[in-house]
Amino acid sequence: xxxxxxxxxxxxxxxxxxxxxxxxxxxxxxxxxxxxxxxxxxxxxxxxxxxxxxxxxxxxxxxxxxxxxxxxxxxxxxxxxxxxxxxxxxxxxxxxxxxxxxxxxxxxxxxxxxxxxxxxxxxxxxxxxxxxxxxxxxxxxxxxxxxxxxxxxxxxxxxxxxxxxxxxxxxxxxxxxxxxxxxxxxxxxxxxxxxxxxxxxxxxxxxxxxxxxxxxxxxxxxxxxxxxxxxxxxxxxxxxxxxxxxxxxxxxxxxxxxxxxxxxxxxxxxxxxxxxxxxxxxxxxxxxxxxxxxxxxxxxxxxxxxxxxxxxxxxxxxxxxxxxxxxxxxxxxxxxxxxxxxxxxxxxxxxxxxxxxxxxxxxxxxxxxxxxxxxxxxxxxxxxxxxxxxxxxxxxxxxxxxxxxxxxxxxxxxxxxxxxxxxxxxxxxxxxxxxxxxxxxxxxxxxxxxxxxxxxxxxxxxxxxxxxxxxxxxxxxxxxxxxxxxxxxxxxxxxxxxxxxxxxxxxxxxxxxxxxxxxxxxxxxxxxxxxxxxxxxxxxxxxxxxxxxxxxxxxxxxxxxxxxxxxxxxxxxxxxxxxxxxxxxxxxxxxxxxxxxxxxxxxxxxxxxxxxxxxxxxxxxxxxxxxxxxxxxxxxxxxxxxxxx
Amino acid sequence: xxxxxxxxxxxxxxxxxxxxxxxxxxxxxxxxxxxxxxxxxxxxxxxxxxxxxxxxxxxxxxxxxxxxxxxxxxxxxxxxxxxxxxxxxxxxxxxxxxxxxxxxxxxxxxxxxxxxxxxxxxxxxxxxxxxxxxxxxxxxxxxxxxxxxxxxxxxxxxxxxxxxxxxxxxxxxxxxxxxxxxxxxxxxxxxxxxxxxxxxxxxxxxxxxxxxxxxxxxxxxxxxxxxxxxxxxxxxxxxxxxxxxxxxxxxxxxxxxxxxxxxxxxxxxxxxxxxxxxxxxxxxxxxxxxxxxxxxxxxxxxxxxxxxxxxxxxxxxxxxxxxxxxxxxxxxxxxxxxxxxxxxxxxxxxxxxxxxxxxxxxxxxxxxxxxxxxxxxxxxxxxxxxxxxxxxxxxxxxxxxxxxxxxxxxxxxxxxxxxxxxxxx
Lengths: 645, 425
Hints:
The complex is a heterodimer.
Chain A: H1 4-28, E1 40-45, E2 52-53, E3 59-71, H2 81-88, H3 92-105, E4 111-114, H4 119-128, E5 135-145, H5 151-154, E6 157-159, H6 162-167, E7 176-178, H7 181-185, H8 187-191, E8 195-201, E9 207-210, E10 226-228, H9 232-241, E11 247-253, E12 258-265, H10 278-287, H11 297-300, H12 308-319, E13 329-337, E14 340-352, H13 354-360, H14 363-374, H15 380-392, H16 415-421, H17 445-456, E15 460-461, E16 467-470, H18 477-480, E17 483-484, H19 492-505, E18 519-531, E19 534-548, E20 555-561, H20 571-584, H21 590-598, E21 599-600, H22 602-610, E22 623-624, H23 627-644
Chain B: H1 2-5, H2 13-34, H3 48-68, H4 71-76, H5 78-95, E1 97-99, E2 102-108, E3 111-113, H6 115-132, H7 141-160, H8 164-170, H9 173-179, H10 184-203, H11 205-222, H12 229-253, H13 256-265, H14 272-280, H15 284-296, H16 307-310, H17 322-355, H18 359-383, H19 401-419
């Protein structure tokens, strides 16, 4: 027995050691990942983020360098913390708090500690950085806006969050990524690919030299410059006209689908989301739940389209052959169906054909037309399906599949939709409101602008998009191939004639612009809000859809002005001015311009939140802006005009 | 047998090959741990790897010499060798050179010699000689005391020179004595003392005494052989004395750095902030060495590819912490291989020792196995954090001429003795 004691101990210690090795190397360790190796310093090299130009080659967004102090909590060594805090201009408590936060994210990976140093702080800190083991300075490009407009188009870049990192491991804490607008939709094009250098450290945190002579290092790939379809001047002009209003303006070039301007009001200066105040300003914008400046109304605002939708019904009726352009329908100052009545502005007994029906926006005419479409085969369910398909072929009721970061489907109902509401029987009269663009139909401004473009093109459209050119790339087919609607070409002429008449002697008679043949359609949409759990009617939305010129159209536009009352009051004016600005480059209707600058709807928007009863529509008075505000807007306008010359 | 017919094959080649494998693999790791840059001149004598290469060449000559000397020489002169060796240890107090707090070196020009490495061999020879003497009976108390004295003298001398690591190695001679018939009581007492000490440090003296009492009460009910009450009380008293004694020893006699090492090992410190601080300060080596080993994974980063080794993250990596280089660069497979090579070597030596016809050879063989085993156990255990930090080299592996030669002499005397066993009566 005595021989075996040492023998057994030798065997036992052998097994123990191998077990311990297994625990250390296989179970616990084993990561040969250079990125997690704290003997290797990783130096990230961030490439230039792509520049953004407008359609006329004007630089809108460039770059400026930014310096972040980064920390790898696990590697934080012993040093004079007070000295470090003093250099960073933070308190000891802040230091501890920030370090805890970084550690709770990951002790092994870098997180930003103090982002965006000032140039002076950077200069001082850079020399002393080696003393503060575990910390380093990371240079990365930050956006520099060369303009104050287009915040909703251009978007912004911001620090990635945990979700971004999980979704795409390319990103690390502290990286910047497009958050909204084209920065988000063209993130990968603009950002390029960051490079990395691996540097062997020694235990005193000193660099010894490149790891493996730089075998694993990568060179950064520059971000690509892009040109967008936006005309900065037109965009600026639109934003100016929409000051003190809420809504959206979207202008499209019908022959290409390029978005010329995309205004969301209210908006903000994109510069406020750059630099150290970014998070403060963003929070402010984000928390404004009343004006919602981050809500892109031209893309996300889902409204009932109102009268412009009558154009759609006219086109469907012609295609379905349930009416001819010349057939006259009598209006009784409204339309009676069953024991209900839909009012109309026409005088009793007026007989409208299609052209005058559109010109006068006759409710009775379109109610009749709508019912004929649905009842064509004696089955309203079948009728509504074919009606829905026609409307959807214009891009309504669905995502446009474009390159904009946000969007809404809107709603074009069909049989299935109504089956839920009317499970047993379904008659065309149940949905008669759709005839005049109210009821269940809902669209976004960009969808209506696209509809206008399809009408202007007499039957087809290009998916509206904001990208014009990417350095060294061709645009995808989706943006360069036309999409055809289900309406044949010949059916467009009577409708366009009607839209032309709207300007000649219809609801937009006062909005004419010299030498430009504009085709348009006004809209006035009732809307409601829930105030203290009571459904309360607010002043109507002012809506306008137009394109110009009538032949070879250059611009199609949709304008929504929330609570602007009737269509030509606000929206029509904005549309006419935008058209003139785009086609002529200068404004002859200075009176309209003046009127829009002078009038504000802010009081109207304040009403639902005032807690007091209020009047709407005809019983309201228009608010005139104060002199100071008027002077400010006027100056902006002068600057804009000066920039053109 | 082949060994009888051919004089070259009478040596145990298995042991020699295991030895050469360990020395060769050790040198590769010293190269990794000590080279700078990618241009390596293997014979650069200003660098540890170059020096070690020279030491290895000299070792080969030494081996030839050791094997050429008549086997009887070692037995005959063992007492003299022991005396000279003890004198060299004493001489250190007068002429010794202090390195890292231990006065363990003679400096002759730029060349240093560490006599304590050779003293282990001398002690093994002396113990073998004494026990194998026909007049010695290890069961006899007087003889036990004399044997202990042979071992304790060098152990005390190196302890006084602040070389705790070498002192602990002498504890390994217990295995030799036990094999030769030291009463079992020593084993029982030894195991109990170690167990009680750890318990007392980890859970406190009171809890240890309570536990002892409980065990005794249980034994009373379960065991047929009843301990008398008086004896039980005596055992409890002893355990109490021991527990408080250990605590007193830990708190008042051990130096702060030794306390810290033990406290880290037994996880006595609960405050996470203090633990972090420990990791940065005195446990830095251990922490870095564990990290280096961990980062090796299954197959390791490859020879000369270890980033922690290249970055010199582990201090003393080419000497005491050489095993962490193996861990990082050769991974689990390489490290486990080294462990297996050591285990095979030790088993081979023990096997050969049991085969010896002369008691001197057998006792000496056990001495060789015990000394190498203690080094293996403490060094690798320490580098992987299983044993409190004790500075001690890994035989054949760690950088250092004295160490390499001392182990060569230790082992090859035994190989020579073994080769001679057929001629013996």
